[in-house]
Amino acid sequence: MRMMQLALPALAAMVLAGFAITAPAEARNYPWCAQGGEFDYPGECTYSTYEQCQASVSGRLLYCGPNPMVAYGQAPWPQLRPQRRTRPVAPY
User: Among candidates 75, 71, 25, which has minimal Cα distance to 45?
Assistant: First the structure.
């Protein structure tokens, strides 16, 4: 029983440390998108080459198209970050 009381807090600490260490995933604008069928516009834009996209859409009733964010030079949507709060400095 004593071992269980020590193991659970240690396990919880490891899980929390794992969440604290991991970084959020970053979206990247790849030049090719799988479009049609199950995907809304612009589609699943995760392909670096047209050949990769073609291989992925084969047999899925989809087609490959250019990513409009890359093809037409549109700026990506800004990533919103929370404002850092600072404490006011007390006058001397």
Answer: 71
Tokens of 28: 């990247």
Segment 33-56, tens digit of pLDDT? 999 888 888 889 999 999 999 999
Beta-bridged to residue 47, according to DSSP, are: 32
Q: Residue 59's domain spans which residues? A: 27-73
Q: How far apart are CA 63 and CA 47, in angstroms?
A: 12
What's the rounded Cα separation, in Å, for the pair 9 and 7? 6
Q: Count the domains in the chain.
A: 1
55-73 pLDDT, tens digit per residue, is 999 998 999 999 988 877 7
Give a yes or no: residue 31 inside a domain.
yes
